[in-house]
Amino acid sequence: MDIVLQFILSGLALGAIYAVVAQGIYVTFAATRTFNFAQGEVTVIGAFLALSTIGFLAGPIGVTFPLGILVGLLGGALLAIIIERVAVAPVSGGPERHEWLVSTAGVAFILLNAMTVIWTRETVRFPKPFGEQVIQFGPAGLLPQEVFVIVAAVVVVGLLLLVLERTQLGRAFRAVAFNREAAELMGIDSRWMAVGAYALSGALAGLAGSLVGPITNVNAYMGLNLLIKAFIAAIVGGIGNPWGIVVAAILLGIAEAGLSYAIGAWREAALLALIIIFLGVRPNGLFGRAAVEKV
Amino acid sequence: MFLIALIVLLLVVPQILPRGQLFFWQRVLIFAVYAMSVALLVGFTGLISFGQAAYFGIGAYTIGLLLPLKLAAPITVVLAIIAGAVVALIVGAIILRASGLAFGMLTLAFGQALYQLTFVFKDITGGENGIPGILRGTVLGINLGNPVTYWYFGLFWLALGVGFLALVHASPFGHTLRVIRDDPKRAGFLGIPVFRYQLGSYVIAGAIGALAGALYALLAGIVTQDMLYWTLSGDPLIMSLIGGLRTFWGPAAGAVLFIWVQDQLARQTGAWILYQGLTFLVFVLFLPEGLASLPRRYQLWRARRQARAEAAPKRAPA
Questions:
Q1: Residue B189 burial (CB < 10 Å; 0-12/13-18/19+)?
Q2: Band (A119; pLDDT cuts 50, 70, 90)
Q3: How far is B141 from chain A (nearest CA, A)?
């Protein structure tokens, strides 16, 4: 039982990161029916920006780490706005066009390479702002950074969902997501909504990167894995269902932690096989119902 | 006319080109057919796959794993094609239940799962070292080790692959695929068994992808994990897009340009992936229908210029 508690806790920390990145996919997909294939790279760049900020300021980590997170978050948002303007908006003409997938995949290649040129190909050690003293929860324990990640993710995702459900802006956003043309007729500018959604998704990615950095350290190539996991969470949870995505992200994190303990090297392959079979059985995700549309 | 010129060119190439360049151009040919197989799926069936590297890799690893049996090269190539088709049939039957982007992500997940398996089964796949020392051997007294004879061997198989794709495109099956691409729901209401057609297209793309992988493994003389990595799923998509995703020959033209540019850039600069990414972006933004749309664009441009030239003198006296 102790071990089960342990991987539920570790899985929560992992799932929290996936949840933050996956919300970024959700907001852009809802607003524009596109998402950023370079989302993983934006996440890693967020981590690198945070790292460089901390290194540049060279102050006490308690001060520089929050600033690093801020720079990672803003950098991610700015980058995503540029991506939306350059690679998404010009090619997203209609619902059945998929050029944006290839153009943002092109951006992913560019960013990956830029990272290896600006920073490095090697894994870089990220300082541990809260030390490495394990915090005990009964028989199981977590690193302080992992606890911080869980708390931060709860706050951020909670705020996001609150804004989406309770504010005028959130209502406008949901209107665009539900029916873009009708929303436009009601005077909502869907172009600004698209830019805003990308900015938000970039900020979430940059934040996730600066949060995960101290746990995993930073490697330019780790973006793809983050993107795949976040996307799986988005699909399994139901891509139009932000609460479902949170649940799916956490389950995914726990499954990954559990499999990692149980079968080690087989973990990734087994996890992906499980997901494939799961979606084969329930193609509309955990909570989805098959939608029959009129033609 | 174009086809005959192409065939003649491909037949005489090994007689004119220096042997060092033969390797490069054969790689181009293999990727051209690989890109065409991906375009069948993406451009003509409307199934976005990010995981075709899985089938390229299955083809390559089939060659590698059969190495100890010392089978003749044509037999291993056939087995590779069968392996690709069988895996595509099983995997496709599961993941085609999801549609659109979810399908795309599942293909990516499947590709990455296979990639991870090469680490798990390090003993037989060689892990990061791959499987080196692949020999092409001798078939019917012809030494395939010779680059010139291997050129013709590869050409034979690739021609079979392209011929088969051409048949698919021209057949009622191919026409139905396009109907499904344009509106899968409506196709379903018309009574077309959409799932079966999509699965058929997925299996064909998988089989030809495996053929390309097998030929590439024999060409390179080594099987490596790169042949399963996701960039190898992205490359043919980009090649197709550069060339013209919804045209038959476009993806092949895209492959030629893509690999040539990649090769030139890699000689010049260490940051070649950066420029390569920029190149795609420029293509997507300014030539969204690819190289294949260039002749039509040129005609339009000429017609417009002619119209302007005819209109101009009339205006001049006034």
A1: exposed
A2: confident
A3: 43
